[in-house]
Amino acid sequence: MRYGHFDDERREYVIDRPDTPLPWINYLGTEAYFGIVTNTAGGYSFYRDAKLRRLTRYRYNNAPFDVGGRYLYVRDDATGDFWSPSWQPTQSELDDYECRHGLSYTRIAARRGGIRAETLYYVPLGETLEVWRVNVTNERDTAAELSLFSSVEFCLWDAQDDATNFQRNFSTGQVEVDGGTIYHKTEYRERRDHFAYFACSEPLAGFDTQREAFLGPYRGYDQPRVVEQGAATDSIAHGWAPIGSHHVRLALQPGESREVVFVLGYAENPRDDKFDPPGSQTINKRNVRPVIERWLRPETVADGLAALGDYWDRLLGGLHVTTPDPDTDRMVNIWNAYQCMVTFNLSRSASFYESGIGRGMGFRDSNQDLLGFVHMIPERARERILDIAATQMATGGAYHQYQPLTKRGNNDIGEGFNDDPLWLVLGVSAYVKETGDESILDVPVPFDNEPGSEQPLYEHLRRSVRYTQERLGPHGLPLIGRADWNDCLNLNCFSDTPGEPFQTTENVSGGTAESVFIAGQFVLAAKELAAIADLRGLGEEAGEYRAAAEKMTGVIVEHGWDGEWFRRAYDFHGNPIGSGENDEGQIFIEPQGMCVLGGVGLDDGLATRALRSVAERLATPHGIVLQQPAYSSYRIELGEISSYPPGYKENAGIFCHTNPWIMIAEAMVGNGDRAFDYYRRINPSAREELSELHRCEPYVYAQMIAGKDAPTHGEAKNSWLTGTAAWNFVAITQWILGIRPELTGLRIEPVLPADWPGFQATRAFRGATYEITVRRGAEAGLVVDGERLDGTVVPAAEPGTVLRVEVTVG
Ligand code: BGC
Ligand code: NOJ
């Protein structure tokens, strides 16, 4: 069953009933000001940092999940009937409802009793504000006397503090109302210089800024007393809960429409003693007034929306494919690319599953996210790489996370996830392959942001590789540390007293657990770094990396191979994990993917055998589970992985991030059917028909789908902010469709499902445009502008040129 449909032409997902199984969300904002918006206008906004600069409030663990947002109320002043044109919060019965989530904008339209209201929400480029444009139409054949009320509830900036520190916060709230604009200025008196504003294009019949005055005692947003009575109270908040609400009266003739614009924004305005004498409590609005005036004008709003469309044309224009599969096309051309940009902007901070007050930017996560957006915004990818690398330690180790506002390593979690440093090599390599910009390797970058410690970025990569080499365990495999990619496989956890809660060893570097996953990742990273070293004329060094990769390959084959698949790890006591010797957790997905990605087992048949085992033991119709058999009980020596009930998250859930590794591995062994089959199993668009089971949005990937051991097998969770986005984009575009940037040019080497006759693509690469046609034929070959080339790499062309590339596959 579906709750809507794709409108590919307009690049929108159209939701046609409001009661989706979960809030189906979208993101507003592309640069500094962001908001989450649900299909019922729920969600909140923030400036840069969802924790520290939260503009509007979200109440955690609320029921329903999706309450609190950018709510409007339409009231028929003749009858007193009032309703919300986004369904929430009044949940009044609607004659019509439609939500269109587009690229960085959302439009929600509804009709009741002959009145139609359509609201467009978006954040204009270059601004730190959001626009709500409401069109109210009287479709009756009689005149209508209406009231329109807006509402937002302000967050007192630090969302964590806002949700907990009531004894203080009930007394700090302050607002100012000036010329119909509501200014939220809590904290301004501390000279923090920031405030929010909420403005309306129409003359006001009234306003409210004090929540309880608006709602009335013991009422919620579903039945505000002010709306019920049809008159605002002009309340001014002193402490308690500041809100913003405007009251506008609209008299509409039959067929008449009125456009009302609301602007909610963020400003930082230093006080100016010339205008704001010391002690003055009013905020400095001089810079902000013209901005507000401009954005309340309908023409500006229309132009801003068009500019946003152009922006997305530019970003998405770099790759466009036409294949026999519409689900592939719309994910590659629109939604998967869009989701990659959202992970770039939001990392893992704010969604309906990430609180916005928890995690910062992950070292591992951000490097992988890069794989999905580097082709769209290479300049920002470059900046991101330099930010990440500056948090690396001189040892080559990495803080697991850093704060987006300060860009500094976050000590809460510290270091010791031993896979982290290697992702930097993979991220940088992807950037150089895409852009050809080798100069980044020479950029001086500090270690741990220490001034004076700068070394060329290339030196950071060397240390990443060395970090692994210096931390090998008893079998010669890399030490896992606190965990590797799988945060929950905590093998250096143990308890001296059986039955006691687990402890993580204080000094994980003293832990001897080893990771076959990191071994495979090391082989991959060492080969990538060898290619970069060659590029820099460091042939000897390149040889050393290749030799190290070969040596590690030998260790994997000797100690990491279990007979039919790659083992996962060795625990603290030297017992294998992910082995037929285990009673549970005999086979894990991660090393099957990562070892093959590193090239291990490609020429001795191990790769094919490992992939066969994946197909036989891990694959389900809803995707490939992380391991089997699931852990049936908690095991101190394995840590968090076994804390999850079977089938969820890392305990045998379909952890979607890992599935594309298998798709890529299948493509590497030439199995296009299997690669594409796996791709479709988790492709959200291909799962649209299953929406009742899948429950999450059909237009973006979720981190997890419940595995076969779970009672809710097939149910997705944790949508939007996941490395799944980037890796699926890589798997489908670079390995199945096979359009793969390399250091020397653009490789085009599709590994297609057998029933595909071919496909077409347009790919921008280093400033040139490649018009690619792939067809089946007896003899594989590559023809560029009529000329036959050897191999499958099209050398990088002059910027500005358009190349016609014809590829024949067998
Ligand atoms: C989750 C992991 C996640 C980690 C983040 C764990 O509880 O299971 O998937 O990466 O928390 O800190
Ligand atoms: C989510 C984390 O963001 C990611 O870094 C990790 O690899 C996976 N969980 C698996 O544990």
From TrEMBL:
Biological processes, Gene Ontology terms: carbohydrate metabolic process
GO terms for MF: carbohydrate binding; glycosyltransferase activity
InterPro entries registered for this protein in UniProt: 6-hairpin_glycosidase_sf, 6hp_glycosidase-like_sf, Gal_mutarotase_sf_dom, GH65_N, GH94_catalytic, GH94_Enzymes, GH94N_CBP, Glyco_hydrolase_94_b-supersand
Residue intervals of the Glycosyl hydrolase 94 supersandwich domain: 11-281
Protein name as annotated: Glycosyl transferase
Annotated keywords: Glycosyltransferase, Transferase
CDD domains tied to this protein: GH94N_CBP_like (cd11754)
Record flagged with keyword DNA-binding: no
Gene3D superfamilies, sorted: 1.50.10.10, Glycoside hydrolase, family 65, N-terminal domain, Maltose phosphorylase, domain 3, mpn423 like domain
Domain Glycosyl hydrolase 94 catalytic intervals: 311-738
Pfam families: GH94_b-supersand (PF06165), Glyco_hydro_94 (PF17167)
Keyword Coiled coil applies: no
Annotated organism of origin: Paractinoplanes ferrugineus
SUPFAM superfamilies found in the cross-reference section: Galactose mutarotase-like (SSF74650), Six-hairpin glycosidases (SSF48208)
